[in-house]
Amino acid sequence: MFHFKFRIVLFIGLYVITAGWNLKMENSPYILFKEEWKAEDPIIPPLRTQITDTTSTLTNAQKSSLTDTLIAFEKRKGSQIAVLIVGSTGDWAIEEYAVKVFETWKLGRKGIDDGILIVVAIQDHKTRIEVGYGLEGTIPDAIAKRIIEEFMIPRFREGNYFQGISDGIDKLILKIDGEELSKTGASASLSDINVDSPITEEDLRTVEQKDDSDKDILDKYIVFLAGLFFAIFAISIIIAVFIGSGIFGIIVLTGLVFFMVILSESTILGIGFLILWILFFSMLAYYLREKIMRPRSFWDYILFGRPHTRNSSSSRNGGISLDSSSSWSSSSSSSGSSWSGGGGSSGGGGASGSW
């Protein structure tokens, strides 16, 4: 019974150590169950002009140039395009943050919803084009993604954020100019984007298929590794810790700490459900082991280690028993402009990219 209690203490000790280590490090890539905690409302700067730069990345001349372009476009077409540059979106994914900003700023004309928002998160190395309902047919997700990946991100990687944003705006304007926007809010039909490199339907399918393929491969790889580690260490724990030591004992000792790091991420009120299941089956296995004794062969000693002898006069087989030894908060620059959104809403469409 002493050995059994020692195993329970060992499990609890390793669990506490690994859980404490992860809390100290505050970031572990091994997550089985994780509840996301984030602020109820992200910090959204007020809308005063077409270009809102909370990071002072753009110079005044660059902001003035982009603003003039967007004002001229709005007077000519009626659609609104706004740009927001932040350091980070914090706990919010850039897609969620862009929707929140779009809904707060109400870009586009009311009833037509022909607004577009470009969000650039410098520190996160992420960008997003959020498209209103009235422009989803003109700028579908695949077109927005093509603009981001081919015209914006290459400039961002060079550190030229002004040129990347400028190129993205130019391509969006060229695309919208190729369509007659509906005055009732109905979506326009899809046409080829008017850029230097024409986009065909085959190109769009290729982009979508590539993204899906990459994601599928990554998902399968992660699932395979997780299953492999779980199988190896689960079997090792059951055989080595609760039957004996030997070769299986070495396997479990080298893998137990890593396995516990994974399990320590699965916590509710500080207790991992998988740990509880392991402890339950551990006690069950120990009980069965004590009830069912069997002679040991040479390979039993090699694989599971040396047993210890228990002195008991009532033991029919000499009292042989198996022993197991161990086991974003930047402020927006004030401006005298009173430009505001026209009451439009986001359609949830668009695309994101990172660099």
From TrEMBL:
Could you tell me where the Gly residues compositional bias lies? Answer: 339-355
Where are its TM segments located?
229-262, 268-288
Q: Which residues form a coiled coil?
A: none
**Keywords annotated in UniProt:** Membrane, Transmembrane, Transmembrane helix
Q: Which residues form the TPM domain?
A: 51-173
Write down the InterPro entries for this protein, in alphabetical order: TPM_dom (IPR007621)
Q: Which domain of life is it from?
A: Bacteria
Which residue ranges are recorded for the region named Disordered? Answer: 309-355
Q: Where is the composition biased (Low complexity)?
A: 312-338
PANTHER family cross-referenced by the UniProt entry:
UPF0603 PROTEIN YGCG
* Name of the protein in its database record: PF04536 family protein
Q: Which organism is it from?
A: Leptospira weilii str. 2006001855
